[in-house]
Amino acid sequence: MRDMALAARTRGLEYLAIIDHSHRLGIAHGLSADRLAGQIDEIDRLNEELHRIVLLKGVEVDILEDGQLDLPDDMLSRLDIVVAAVHSHFGLRRARQTERILRKLDSPYVSILEHPTGRPLLERDPTDFDLDRILAHAAERRCCVELNAQPQRFDLDDLACREAKNAGVLVSIGSDAHSRGGLSNPRWGVAQARRTWLTRRDVLNTRSLAQLWPLLLKPPPFTQLARAADS
């Protein structure tokens, strides 16, 4: 995490969200509640040491088949940012898949719906759900959707990003960086966003840290805002 923070700072970033998978996704060595708690403590320690960069405590939590989340609320409440994603049961019928995602959006801790259609390019078809209903509910809940900038994903696609804009839903351009090199991915996401006429105002993470906090539905930790102001 220190290496990622320093690489992000070198690129001129003000903040970087550390978002590993929750434990249900075993292939990604996802974090159990205990391991996530340890990571939260480690990020707090790093934030006390680092300057001109703030690490946000996060997790990519699995949306289970019934719409429940893979971690308990008492753990999610300790995080700065929670993104939720479908990683299994991609073939559910449209109505059931839609209800599954809608239920997840009702969680008060979830800020972003991650790579919403779940499709790696040329590997798997996108999941079938009612995008209009999802975006309408996301707008009501002030939940964002991700444009995953990893070149094998580009999820959401350009047309869906336009629909998000029209629905009043902010788009988050995520790097999906698994290493320092992946921090360059957002340029591909920016290019995708420009194709669909998104502007800075339409993108969540073009904002400063102070502007970001209210949109994540979290009160700003005083120490982090003070550190950002000092930088």
Explain what you see:
The chain has helices at residues 2-10, 33-49, 73-76, 94-105, 131-141, 158-167, 186-195, 209-215, 222-230, and strands spanning 15-21, 54-62, 81-85, 112-113, 144-148, 171-174. With 231 residues, the chain is α/β, with parallel strands linked by helices. The chain has a domain at 63-215: Metal-dependent hydrolases (TIM Barrel), CATH 3.20.20.140. Helix 4 runs parallel beside helix 5 and helix 5 (131-141) crosses helix 6. The chain is globular.
Summarize this entry quickly.
The chain has 231 residues and is of the alpha/beta class. It has nine helices and six strands, in the order H-E-H-E-H-E-H-E-H-E-H-E-H-H-H. The chain has a domain at 63-215: Alpha-Beta Barrel (TIM Barrel).
SSE map:
Layout: H1 2-10, E1 15-21, H2 33-49, E2 54-62, H3 73-76, E3 81-85, H4 94-105, E4 112-113, H5 131-141, E5 144-148, H6 158-167, E6 171-174, H7 186-195, H8 209-215, H9 222-230
Parallel strand pairs: 1-2, 2-3, 3-4, 4-5, 5-6
> Based on the structure given, which CATH architecture of the domain at 63-215 is correct?
Alpha-Beta Barrel
Structural class comes to alpha/beta
Question: Low-confidence stretches at least 5 residues in length (pLDDT < 50)?
Answer: none
The number of distinct helices, counting runs of at least 4 residues, comes to 9
Keywords:
single chain; 231 residues; alpha/beta; TIM Barrel; six-stranded parallel sheet; 6 strands; globular
